[in-house]
Amino acid sequence: MDGTLTPPPLGLYIHLPWCVQKCPYCDFNSHALRGELPEGNYITALLRDAAQAAPEASGRPVDTVFIGGGTPSLFSAAAIDRLLRGLEETLNLHPEAEITLEANPGTLDADRFEGFLKAGVNRLSIGVQSFGDDHLRRLGRIHGAREAIEAIELAQRAGFQRINADLMHGLPHQTLTQAVRDVDQALALGIRHVSHYQLTLEPGTAFHHRPPALPDDDALADIEAACATRLAEAGLIRYEVSAWSTPGEACQHNLNYWQFGDYLGIGAGAHAKMTEQDGRITRTQRVAMPRHYQAVAGTPAAIAEAHEVPVDERLLEYLMNALRLTEGTTVKEALERTGLTAETLQPGVDTAVKEGWLADDPERLQPTPQGQRFLNDLLGVFMTMSTDG
What we know:
By secondary structure, the protein is of the alpha/beta class. It has 15 helices and 16 strands. The model has no long low-confidence stretch (mean pLDDT 93).
């Protein structure tokens, strides 16, 4: 490795693992709530965890915070306020940090929205998934279409300016008309950021064990194309494979992931990726079970896994995310974030350009439409480089 490794921006991911019930497609570290939510004990554990992680940040500003789950909106506004005030004392939170909280319809009311906003949350990601009652039932969601609409409207009235709507397509028995109708409903509500992703059957989920009837590949392609057209016509720009926004509304926290940025991770099962002062890049994961996590948070026993990213795997890890972005990345940033040299990168670039998967631009690594469509093939070029080492 002859290149210079530049520490990237730093984010913070916080995992709140409980939900009302486990959805059959979900492979996240989420647990159906049994009994009372232990929010006080869990917030205490998170703050112990943050204090232990703080030295890793070395005083660097934390530009973004993402509170995910599970269903973080099960927690009270007072608990979220206590969490954020405690983090301000432990970490160097940027005064204008983007602070996102995931919320699910059916766990929300006007007072809770207002409390979240007052606590410092300035961006919501609402797990709508669909505005069709039949599809919501098949997905195991606890809310209906009316609750989804009301949640967005309540958030808007509470004063939230930045709201993402999660929408899934390729649902069991979903038609093209139904998928487009979901997008139209989100747009009619004034949503300026949509995460529009295809349902996949992940190992370990109920849907993987008992697969539902999903649209075939041709139908999926038609659905994706029709929804993309509708989003573009409404002025939203596709900035990542599954993310659309109006200018200025892109999720900065997720952009940091996709650009191989650093992030601390606290909470049960949370992942972290950090660039060390000596040039190493390390990944860690907290213990996954909530009860165990609460017992050991703030001690070395909270780290379930830790490993260094080998130099010959950095480029592939970087590109697996950066090439999901419509604009791709610059060659300069790729080298700064991985510590590699242009000579290491060039053979793969030459092959990808020849295949028509990357734009022929000496300063950028930007996937062509064909490259986005065949992203795995594009990445395979650089995977071969890593293997050959």
